[in-house]
Amino acid sequence: MSRYCSQCGKSRKACICQWIVPLANEVELIILQHMSEEHRPLGTARILNLSLNHCTCLIGEDFSDSEALNALLEDDAYQHFILYPSEQSSCLSTLSADESASVKKIRLILLDGTWKKAYKMWQLSTNLHAIPTVKLPENLQGHYTIRKAPSENSLSTVEAGYHALSLVEPDKDFEPLLTAFKKMIEFQIAQMPPGVFEKNYLKGE
């Protein structure tokens, strides 16, 4: 028997499948995952991929020639947006209102990787450059307490997906995404020797 769960990819001891709740989302997510994140034990994109019925995860760095991604982008039935903060990005809360009357369905692209890697993915993947960018409200705070982030409002991929879907589909409850995320973190903290979490992750608090 494999030491790893065939569904979530984590070790059987750290399996998160018990906390996964199937969720029906109308706005489809496309996760472009940097290859260094694919087998990372603390990665959160798999929570989205396992939970949502409309979610696609593609792995790589330069997606310019990705047949799978380009086929999705060429589908005229969808309007595509990238969750990527820039000076030109519109707030996602305005998108939910502006696009509500659109006849096209919405696909939202998320970049899964560190800020440095996400920026490189964006720079290399020229097929993304013409797609409108959107951003989340700036007052959101991340709770990825076991992975160091550049700022307090840095969000994990699952948190970004949760907030994005909650904004564009306000009538649906996506809280189970955060529940699975919190349970994963609690398990990892419980595996640490006494004092390690407090010493390395609670500095300044």
UniProtKB/TrEMBL annotation:
SMART domains, per database record:
DTW (SM01144)
Which stretches make up the DTW domain? 1-193
Q: Which Pfam families match?
A: DTW
- GO process terms (BP): tRNA processing
Name the domain of life.
Answer: Bacteria
> Keyword ATP-binding on this protein?
no
MF terms in GO? tRNA-uridine aminocarboxypropyltransferase activity
Q: Which InterPro entries match?
A: DTW, DTWD2/TAPT
EC number(s) per UniProt?
Answer: 2.5.1.25
Q: Which UniProt keywords apply?
A: S-adenosyl-L-methionine, Transferase, tRNA processing
Q: Does the keyword Transmembrane apply?
A: no
Classification via PANTHER family:
TRNA-URIDINE AMINOCARBOXYPROPYLTRANSFERASE 2
What family classification does the UniProt entry report for this protein? Answer: Belongs to the TDD superfamily. DTWD2 family.
The identity of this protein, by name, is tRNA-uridine aminocarboxypropyltransferase
